[in-house]
Amino acid sequence: MLVYSKKITPRLRYITDFFGKEITGKPFELTDDVDVFKNHNGPKINYSNSRINDEELIINNCLLLFETTIKKQNIDCFETNGFKAFFKTTGDYAFDIFAASFYLISRYEEYLPHKKDIYSRYAHEKSLAYKEGFLNLPLINIWIEDFKATIKRKFPLFSFHFSPFTFQPTYDIDEAYSYKHKSWLRTFGGISKSLVNGKWSALKERSKVIRGKAKDPFDSFDWMDALHEKHKLKPIYFFHVAATNARYDKNILPTEPAMKQLIKSHAEKYPVAIHPSWQSGDDETLLEKEIETLQDITGKKITVSRQHYIRFTLPHTFRRLIQAGITDDYSMGYGSINGFRASVASAFYWYDLEKEQTTPLLLHPYCFMDANSFFEQKLSSQQAFEEMLHYYHTVKSVNGTLITLWHNTFLGTAQLYTGWGEQYRKFIEIICSPKV
After folding, report:
1. Which three-class secondary structure string do you get for 262-330?
2. Structural domain of residue 225, as residue ranges?
3. pTM of this prediction exceeds 0.70
4. Least confident of 183-192, 260-269, 412-421
5. How many helices (H) and strands (E) does the chain have?
6. Of 33, 313, 377, 393, which is least packed with CB atoms within 10 Å of its CB?
């Protein structure tokens, strides 16, 4: 596929690379030479506001991909072919699909002035996807499927690249155990808190776990292993290995032998990744130290990450990850609501909008987190199951990648999360069935 534009910019090259890989398996070719475009015998897209010949598919463009500044855009959403769109233009397609996709996938709106949430994150309520009601859809993938149909009508012999639907389970291990392997100070503090609040059942449970008479309620690791082995799944485990505990960093310290063994045993069977601590977001020296800690324990190079509490700021956090040797990140989602933060269910390279350049950091967007359903959306386990099924069917319909985020805490025997493990097991059974 050849794409003509009067001017080739980094933004245009970035988004046509993405579209090309999704549609043909390789980047679209670009040219700013009218004669080259005219003489091209294969399928071609004219990305301009002047038709060149009748053999082209013309997309009239707006200015976004030719700008070099970051400013508030005038966006009016409208309905077309059963889905929302914006940047309406004339031509052979109803809107500037390249510019609209770039706006969403680059997270353009997150570079604009905005009020952050209580955890200093971009608030999902500020996003276009939330305001316009398409947060629960991988809108860019839906657009691409519709665009492919338009291409097929114009160029009947054109062949498309096919990527099958994939499912990638992931887990954040930021609180491996509820009672076991904690310092005497933390244990004493937990006992005191239970006494003050009259939580006698918690005191009894803690005592039984510490004495080895009961399993720790957060210890769901054997259960998860059995589930993965049964369905031949290869999950990714993100381990929190902060050197010290703090308000939002509560995991068992990586110096604890039991924690080291837990990490090692998982690294032998599954991909293991870093879950940078909250503290590392404030102290830039800690990120590389935590990566080194995980590498020392596993004996493997760590190049994959996901931010604790999904706490990141563009472009600073991702620049730090690149500097620390991270090549793949799984933070592209919200820590306050489920859905598609970048409106896409495909991996994509992060575009540094301030530097106007494509980076080597590959982002893998997730759309479902157990904690969002439970704490933020106040769903029951049954409702969360139905929500997961929605994302499964939606992502499968566009042959995307479904990435879920669960915590071991939800899958154990903790009374607070009763029923959640069973609903997750049921979900896995359904989607891994050859009949589905």
Report:
1. HHHHHHCCCCEEECCCHHHHHCCCHHHHHHHHHHHHHCCCCCEECCHHHCCCCCHHHHHHHHCCCCEEC
2. 166-178+216-431
3. yes
4. 183-192
5. 15, 15
6. 33
